[in-house]
């Protein structure tokens, strides 16, 4: 009976979770699973469409500049109604989403890590799944499993919790290394391979994982290969005094998250990603990014510098940041703004540097202070004609 109730019917859309579920799906719950190549009704695909129906990265058309500005402002304004004093974290989260990356939120308990992920997911009318990582969580709970159907005498694939547009992973470092590795293929290739068959994940696809760096008992630290899959790592930090007072006033009876509704669709996000894709990056800015990466590898304070993948992720994040700043081209300020979030969790300090109290963020900041930037004519003047700021009242380069 349970198997019959949980069976996904081809061509039939799945309902969105009820408001009482906070818009998330229980990890590993086959009843909430999405058929291969399918999303919820908001995702626009049905099981009959098959895996090939999911939009590949880069296929969406670019959003109009004015609409991009309006949509991004709506998303950020909605997040800020829930997250008191966390405008910077909200902007970084949206930047990573538009850059087609994944986000690692690392901080002490109770500062709003999961709340940020849930709020971002609720602002977009898309499929959402939440995974509570525990030591007994199995890889098949994440990726899915093939179950034998006695009526058809065939194995049927039941998608796991990773088959959603936005996957929220709570306390990712509490799961075993084997379970953590189940996300590697999903995060890099946006697909899951089980029993020799590959299944496309819905697009856009983003993993927002949280972890607590203070309590290490019973945890499995993320290896460097896994951390490198995350485009950016951010820390929430404690809110300022005024924000905490506002929080006590607005959160005392009911969470503002309950009043949040979607202000953008999956198609809107795909079009915004298309707009980020066409942001212009001049050769001097690319050279600046490469110089930054090589400087981390040559630094005496670092045992491991930035990888080529890290530089590519930094370029994509800088393009998304430029678009959110209403520019159609990247300047070094975009690179500097995103450098710490993108690189700090990827580099490894030398033991003597760590013993001396230095941090990865401090080393990267020191490198940026001495790295030559060049002139505006070099990194902005060579952009294609007809480009500049997004929207009216634009003056070109600079902020």
Architecture overview:
With 399 residues, this protein is α/β, with parallel strands linked by helices. It has helices at 2-6, 65-82, 87-98, 113-122, 139-143, 177-180, 184-189, 224-227, 241-250, 266-277, 283-298, 308-324, 332-343, 351-355, 360-370, 376-379, and strands at residues 103-106, 124-125, 128-132, 144-149, 154-159, 166-170, 191-194, 197-200, 206-211, 232-234, 264-265, 302-304, 348-349. It contains 16 helices and 13 strands. Helix 2 crosses helix 3, helix 10 (266-277) crosses helix 12 and helix 11 (283-298) packs across helix 12 (308-324). The longest helix is centred in the N-terminal third of the chain and has 18 residues, at 65-82. It is globular, with a radius of gyration of 22 Å. The model is unreliable at 1-59, 382-387 and 390-399 (pLDDT under 50).
Write the layout of secondary structure elements.
Layout (H helix, E strand, L loop, with lengths): L1 H5 L58 H18 L4 H12 L4 E4 L6 H10 L1 E2 L2 E5 L6 H5 E6 L4 E6 L6 E5 L6 H4 L3 H6 L1 E4 L2 E4 L5 E6 L12 H4 L4 E3 L6 H10 L13 E2 H12 L5 H16 L3 E3 L3 H17 L7 H12 L4 E2 L1 H5 L4 H11 L5 H4 L20
Parallel strand pairs: 1-9, 1-10, 2-11, 3-6, 6-9
Antiparallel strand pairs: 4-5, 7-8, 12-13
């Amino acid at each position: 009976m349970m198997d019959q109730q949980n069976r996904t019917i081809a061509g039939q859309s799945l309902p969105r979770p009820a408001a009482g579920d906070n818009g998330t799906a229980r990890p590993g719950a086959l009843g909430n699973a999405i058929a291969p190549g399918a999303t919820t009704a908001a995702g626009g695909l049905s099981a009959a469409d098959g895996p090939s129906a999911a939009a590949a990265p880069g296929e969406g058309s670019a959003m109009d500049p004015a609409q991009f500005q309006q949509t991004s402002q709506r998303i950020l304004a909605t997040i800020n109604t829930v997250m008191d004093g966390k405008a910077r974290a909200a902007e970084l989260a949206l930047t990573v989403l538009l850059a087609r990356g994944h986000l690692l939120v690392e901080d002490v308990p109770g500062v709003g890590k999961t709340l940020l992920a849930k709020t971002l997911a609720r602002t977009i009318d898309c499929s959402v799944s939440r995974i509570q990582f525990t030591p007994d969580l199995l890889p098949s709970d994440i990726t899915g499993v093939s179950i034998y159907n006695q009526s058809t005498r065939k194995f049927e694939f039941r998608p796991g919790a990773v088959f959603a547009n936005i996957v929220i992973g709570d306390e990712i470092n509490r799961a075993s290394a084997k379970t953590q590795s189940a996300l590697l293929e999903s995060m890099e290739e946006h697909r899951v391979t089980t029993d020799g068959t590959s299944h496309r994940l819905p697009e856009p696809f983003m993993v927002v994982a949280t972890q607590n760096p203070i309590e290490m008992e019973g945890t499995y630290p993320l290896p460097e290969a896994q951390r490198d899959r995350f485009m950016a790592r951010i820390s929430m930090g404690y809110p300022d005094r005024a924000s905490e007072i506002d929080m006590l006033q607005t959160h005392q009876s009911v969470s503002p998250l309950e009043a949040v509704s979607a202000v953008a669709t999956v198609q809107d996000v795909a079009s915004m990603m298309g707009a980020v894709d066409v942001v212009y990056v001049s050769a001097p800015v690319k050279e600046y990014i490469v110089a930054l990466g090589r400087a981390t590898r040559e630094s005496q304070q670092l045992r491991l510098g930035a990888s080529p993948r890290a530089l590519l992720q930094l370029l994509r994040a800088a393009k998304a940041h430029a678009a959110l700043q209403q520019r159609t081209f990247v300047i070094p300020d975009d690179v500097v703004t995103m450098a710490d979030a993108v690189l700090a969790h990827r580099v490894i300090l030398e033991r003597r540097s760590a013993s001396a109290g230095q941090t990865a963020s401090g080393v990267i900041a020191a490198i940026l202070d001495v790295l030559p930037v060049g002139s505006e004519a070099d990194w902005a003047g060579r952009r294609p004609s007809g480009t500049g700021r997004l929207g009216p009242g634009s003056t070109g380069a600079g902020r």
